[in-house]
Write a structure and sequence with these properties.
- The complex is a heterotrimer of chains A (176), B (151) and C (200).
- Chain A contains six helices and three strands.
- With 176 residues, chain A is mainly α.
- In chain A, strand 2 and strand 3 form a beta hairpin.
- In chain A, helix 1 crosses helix 3 and helix 2 crosses helix 3.
- With 151 residues, chain B is of the alpha+beta class.
- Helices cover 23% and strands 46% of the residues of chain B.
- In chain C, helix 4 crosses helix 5 and helix 9 packs across helix 10.
- Classes of the chains: A mainly alpha (176), B alpha+beta (151), C mainly alpha (200).
Chain lengths: 176, 151, 200
């Protein structure tokens, strides 16, 4: 009959429950498929003859199985727009505007691109029938057309618009 | 031909002038609801000057920002006419100045402890809530919301 | 034609967005951020267990991702590649934190063999009959109680499917240390899950 409290790393040399840490981690490595085929055969044979080792293997397998059920679904606790605006600011800080990677489009596309874009803008303005409404929606990040100045620091503000909430936000970092 | 055109030109000039006059007289008073809000993950502290924020605004802020609780420090309704400005004291440290620039938009200045912290110029009329915000001590945040009051 | 008005970013696959972003298209990158932001944040949170730190680090990971985008060759999925970046940042952060704090009791015990040696084996399954969501909640609660070394090794092995060798490289320790940490982490998880059942 097995002892009530099983001690996998006990120093007891009575012949029972006397696996050392090397043996236990080897058992674990076997369960994780991290041993050679020779070691796997050796460990399988040991498991077949040692009920304590089998019990430990069952526990380790159970934890492994439970963890495989996955994680709690954690969501970013701020809006996509706010998160992106901070990332954009971070990118601008590490990569000055002049060094921002340019499109490797062919020369004709680089010339035609802006022309086509300008044409599209004009068409959209005409189609929308409302210049103000168009402007509100077209600015990168969707923020209303806003200019900001920071008289007291140079930390820079983040401006973005939450489309869902219909709010334009100017976030002023504390600079701390 | 010239005689035929003359009345229509005069009428057009008159109509244009009337429209411009109407715009300058009637369309320039802009009304806002301004509020100073404190965002925190803590429960409401035992401070008398904090009020529960209306649930709608609270939900809007919660969907954008990470803080769990939002309390109103102060709120005021005000109007500002073209080429005029209003300065509002929202708390002992926070003041907001709203300048109606007419067709050039609005200019908003934020003052912290009397010093100008931020100047914002918006070239279009403020059609929806404008939020000025920043982080505060102890992982909290402040929010100044300017919401246009629509009739 | 204007990219921002004519490309249907939300309907592009990650691969196409990555290619566009590699050419400097920020809108494509924003779409990638939008798609994977929760996953990247979740990984940072699982390792750091602090909301503010996890938000900051996931943001930093995206900035690094943008900077290193040309190095992405599609050997793994974009999400996996980004997850590796956030993991590395978390490990750096945890190492910095470790330098400024004293060893926890857990670490001392681990060095001496650990209380896990004395723990009775789990029998039967303490999570039997739980709904999947409840089970995940309980695992999360138990994970939060582990030392960061134990938690990290479990997250990397069980959630990220990394091999011992890769975990050792990332955690800058020997494979032996990874094996013993993983063993103690699992034993402690078992005990915590059993303890949580008793608390009910």
């Amino acid at each position: 009959m097995r002892a009530e409290k099983w001690r996998p790393c006990s120093q007891d040399s009575s012949g029972r429950n006397n696996m050392n840490i090397d043996q236990t981690v080897k058992l674990q490595a076997y369960l994780d498929n991290e041993v050679s085929s020779a070691e796997a055969r050796e460990t399988a044979a040991w498991l077949a003859r040692d009920p304590d080792a089998r019990q430990l293997a069952e526990e380790l397998t159970l934890v492994k199985k439970l963890m495989a059920e996955g994680e709690v679904a954690v969501k970013l606790p701020e809006s996509r727009e706010f998160h992106w605006s901070k990332i954009q600011r971070g990118i601008a800080q590490v990569e000055p505007r002049s060094e921002v990677r340019r499109s490797r489009a062919p020369w004709w596309a680089r010339i035609l691109g802006p022309v086509a874009a300008a044409a599209a803008v004009v068409l959209l303005m005409v189609a929308s029938g409302s210049f103000d409404v168009f402007r509100l929606k077209s600015v990168a990040g969707g923020a209303q057309e806003i200019e900001t100045e920071e008289p007291t620091d140079d930390s820079g503000a983040i401006t973005f618009r939450s489309h869902r909430e219909g709010m334009t936000v100017v976030w002023i970092p504390s600079g701390r | 031909m010239r005689q035929l055109l003359r009345p229509s030109i005069i009428f057009s000039i008159f109509a244009f002038s009337l429209a411009a006059f109407a715009q300058s007289v009637f369309a320039t008073d802009t009304a806002f609801h301004a509020s100073l809000i404190w965002g925190t993950d803590e429960m409401k502290p035992d401070k008398k000057d904090l009020r529960e924020l209306d649930p709608k605004t609270k939900e809007k802020l919660k969907s954008i920002f990470k803080w769990k609780n939002y309390f109103e420090v102060d709120s005021q309704d005000f109007k500002v006419s073209t080429n005029e400005f209003r300065k509002l004291k929202m708390s002992s440290k926070c003041e907001v100045e709203v300048h109606n620039l007419g067709k050039d938009g609005m200019e908003i200045k934020l003052f912290g402890e009397g010093k100008l912290v931020k100047k914002i110029k918006q070239q279009t009329p403020i059609l929806e809530s404008l939020v000025l915000a920043g982080d505060d001590i102890n992982s909290s945040a402040w929010f100044v919301i300017l919401a246009p009051i629509t009739k | 034609m204007s990219k921002t008005t004519l490309i249907d970013y939300p309907n592009l696959l990650d691969d196409a967005l990555v290619k566009a972003a590699q050419k400097g298209d920020m809108v494509a990158f924003e779409e990638l951020v939008g798609r994977h932001r929760d996953k990247i944040y979740a990984r940072a949170f699982s390792m750091l267990r602090n909301e503010d730190d996890a938000v900051d680090l996931s943001q930093e990971a995206w900035v690094k991702g943008w900077q290193r985008l040309v190095q992405f060759h599609g050997d793994s999925s974009f999400a996996t590649w980004m997850t590796r970046i956030v993991i590395n940042l978390c490990l750096d952060q945890l190492r910095k934190q470790k330098r400024v704090r004293t060893d926890s009791i857990d670490q001392l015990e681990e060095g001496m063999g650990g209380v896990e040696r004395q723990m009775p084996i789990l029998n039967p399954n303490p999570t039997a009959g739980l709904e999947r969501s409840e089970l995940r909640q309980r695992i999360d609660k138990a994970l939060a109680q582990l030392s960061y070394e134990h938690r990290t090794v479990l997250v990397l092995h069980e959630f990220e499917d990394l091999e011992y060798k890769m975990i050792a490289k990332k955690m800058q320790c020997s494979i032996g240390t990874v094996m013993s940490r993983l063993f103690y982490a699992r034993r402690k998880m078992a005990a915590l899950l059993a303890g949580l059942k008793r608390e009910e």
